[in-house]
Structures are given as C-alpha cells and as structure tokens.
Amino acid sequence: MPLLYQIDVRARLMLGTARYPSPAVLADAVRAARAEVVTVSLRRESAGERAGQAFWSLVRELGVRVLPNTAGCHTVKEAVTTAHMAREVFATTWIKLEVIGEDDTQQPDVFGLVDAARTLCAEGFEVFPYTTEDLVVAERLLGAGCKVLMPWGAPIGSGRGLNNLFGLTALRAHFPEVPLIIDAGLGVPSHAARALELGFDAVLINTAVAQARDPVRMAAAFAQAVEAGFAARQAGPIEPRDLAAPSTPLIGTAFRG
Amino acid sequence: MKILVNGAWRETQREELAGALEELGYGGSVVSTAVNGEFIAAALRVRTVLAEGDRIEVLAPMQGG
After folding, report:
1. How confident is the model at residue A140 (pLDDT cuts 50, 70, 90)?
2. CA A144 – CA A218 distance, rounded (Å)
3. CA distances, A40 to each of A139, A142, B2, B40 (Å)
4. Is residue A182 helix, strand or coil?
C-alpha cells in the first residue's frame, strides 16, 4: 500500500471500534481482521464511570495504530477543536476529519471540510478527510494539504456498498498516486473486494462487522475479501464484453465438418 | 462557583481548571479539555482561571468509526 503520511501500513482493512456487542468481541474482531489501524473517537467523560479510560486501555493492549475521528462535528470550529483535543489524548497527528452536513445521510459538508482541512494541515495535522467522490472537492482537499482521501462508498452504516461506481472509478483514475481509502457504507465482504478490484488502496469498515451476527467471523471474511480484491487488481481483470467468447477452443470440435 | 461541565452544572471551589478537574473526580484520567469552546492543552490547565458559568468540556477516548 502507498505510504500513509510516511507510515507503512500493510493491512488494507481498517476497522472502526464502535457498536460491538462487547469490548472482548471488539478485540477479537480487530485480531481476526488483522487490522493495523483502528478508528477511535472522543466523547464526554463521566468522572464516576471513567468508561473512556477502560476503552483506551483495551485499544493500547491491541498494539494497533489509532486514527481518531471528529465524528459528530457539524462546524469547522467544532471539528478543529476536536482535532486538537484528539491530538493530545491519542498522541498522534493523524485525524480522520469529518464535518457532517446532513444528518439523515451523514453526508460530509464538503465546504466546511475543505476549510477545516486547510486549517489543520497548516497546523501540522495529517488529515484523512471523509469526503464524497466529487473530483473538484478532492482537488481542493489535496490543495489544502491532504495526502490521503477517504471517499464514502455509501451513507455511514447503510451497508449499501459502492453507491456511485462511475464516480468512484473516475476518482481513482483521476488521482492515481493518491492513497484512497473507502470509508463508510460497505455492508458485505464482496463490497470490499469490489473496492480493491477498482484500485482503491484500503477500506474502513465498522458497522458491517460490529453489527454482524458473528462480528469476529465477519471481520475475518472482510480480511479475506480485501486480500482477494487486491490480488485481483494486481492480476489484471479482463474487460467485460457484451457477447460470449467461448473459453474452450473450437478447433478440432467433434461432429463438425 | 458554578460551572457547566459536559452539559451539567457543577460546583467547584477551585479557580483554576486543573484544580477543578481534580475536585470533580477526573484526577489521573486521560482526558482532553476545552473551556467555552476553546481547546486547553493539559500543560495550560494549571494557569487557566475559570469564571462563573464557564462551559467546560472533558473528553476521553471512546469507540468510533
């Protein structure tokens, strides 16, 4: 995989850490996925419960790299402040930048996203923007200093797969050197395989694993799919065609002539 | 004085953020803080003086996608 801000990440499956049935299942799923990067977030901490402290201990024991997000932020100000807070808590300059523009689809506010990315990149953050497949927005994000893009496959948690194949294919073709990670909306391993077959460098999965009947088994299935998709891309898929092309040679066919 | 901590009114006798956090039970926790929407780095908490009605955010690691 191309370097992600000078970091050599081998695993093309990244995992979100939310919505698992238990911390133990989350830990097993991360291992089954063979994930090297997991996403984390920040939330209000109750002094009595200290839930965040237990979660952070669990993640550290997994020995994975964390990619903090700014989930839930609807303004540039909120996202930038959350990024500052995440950098301190997680001791990383990586930030998965989310500026949500519309609640029902969790569609990024791409205008706010570009603004926030510009601010954070200038401050030394290494920004992974959660964006759409829009080419112009992608160009602006790269101009703001982003060196990785995270286009959505479909609305977060929808499980619909790659909603806009044409747009995503164009994005991949337009920015062949930029690491592109599909973030959000994938539902089943075949969606992930398809993303890798199209040339995307990695996928980030959360709900499809965490909410599966057996999250650990699903994590392993996604890992296999990502591996298969990448291998297929490397192997050079054939071009689709409209008419049949018999695979068995016709020369010497019996009963002919 | 009364301050708004994570959306709930709390009483503190301490004037500086570091002391208030200690008093409110956050001592030793891995948290990040903001006062009135502005990030306050850990190193600055001892010299951040609070005022009546300040809005404090105390955030900690949490599951995320």
Report:
1. very high
2. 36
3. 27, 24, 32, 21
4. strand
